[in-house]
What we know:
Helix content is 84%, strand content 0%. The chain is mostly helical. It has one domain. α2 (12-42) runs antiparallel to α3 and α3 (48-85) packs antiparallel against α4. The longest helix is centred in the middle third of the chain and has 74 residues, at 234-307. The radius of gyration is 21 Å and the shape is globular. The two termini are 36 Å apart.
Amino acid sequence: MKKELNLKEDKITSLLIKYSIPSIIAMLVTSLYNTIDRAFVGSIEGGGAEALSALGVAMPLFTIIGAFCVAIAIGGNTNISIKLGEDNKDLAEKYLGTTVFLEILAAIFIIVINITFLEQILYFFGGSDLTVPLAKDYMIIILLFSILNLPGFALNGAIRSEGNPKLAANMMVLGCILNMILDPIFIFIFDLKIAGAAIGTVICQVLIFLWSSYYFTFGKSKIKLKLSNIKFDKRLVKDIIKIGITPFLMEIATGFIFVLTNKILKSYGGDLAIGAMTAITSIGLLFLMPVYGLSQGMQTIIAYNIGAKLYNRAKKALYLAIIFATGFLSLGLITILNFKEFFIGLFSDDVALINLAKYGISINLITLPTIGIVILGTVYFQTIGYSKRAIFLSLTRSVIYLLPILYFMPKIFNIFGIFASQPLADILALLTVVSMIIKDRKNNSNPINLNKNNI
């Protein structure tokens, strides 16, 4: 098969470009959409700053939904790539069906729990009487449509795992462009305000779900989504969870840190500080999202070559991806520092919010170039089956190091300590990941073994 020969024999550099560029483009468009979406919300007349803060309050809940969505998708699609590398099409189709089943199950759980306790959850996440009603209007719509969003996301990722990254990216790009068109229509023309942003988002999520479903049922896919495979299979679920547990814990940890940060920001600066951090986080994600796209392309190459027992090619894919990511994020940091007033101005015209965000962004994003190494190193160990090591690495940046730093720094340095906490955690996480990558590189005598869970 031509696809198999490409992944097994072509130069890793060209493969990384071929499999990552579509994902990077999709992530760039997604991050651009997120930026514009929040910019639209922040420009709502007579309440843009409060609406932006409301999105900040909702961000932990977004992250928790994403934890289930991404973990199941990555766990399932990595196994699909591995089985295709082993030329086991039948088992790849079973993994696809089980992945969709788990996403639907997770969506039902998310909807029931969060709709029932939504107001209490938003207050717990740092909301106030001003921001909770706005966040609630937004999240109810997002939650209800997660029943389609979660399986749609997994199916889109499976298209990439099957070896068609361009189509997967095209779906994401079209969805995001449509979203950018629909948002101002619903927000401003129909005067639905923050709820309009949610409606625009879910319409695009439905589109991606329908398109991806059609591809795997009536389209030209190499594996098919069969109704008989959409079921609970204990053995396959275990394999999916084994790989998916790392990104799940990463996302949950991130959500927990968002909650803690919101509470601390509220104590030191109120709703305005939450809005400023929302803008800073959005700007950082604008440059980080392409690195996640790169990691997706890298992961497909690594998983396929692990299935084919070509271990050195898997390692080379990691090293090249790190070089690309570090270079890109270094340029990103330079761009942010030179045009920070422009970036922050996209989100709000509130002078107090802009001044606070300008102060915080130079501190909070200073370690941006290091984050790519942490992300890619964690994804690498997750993909090759070293689950304990990957879990540990996933928790270093967002829990093990950040939590104590975030607790003590504001007590000593006030709001500066909040902005500086993440960079300090990033440096410690970088040192940890690099040491493990060096150890793995020296350990050439022991080939990668997907049955190992060594730390």
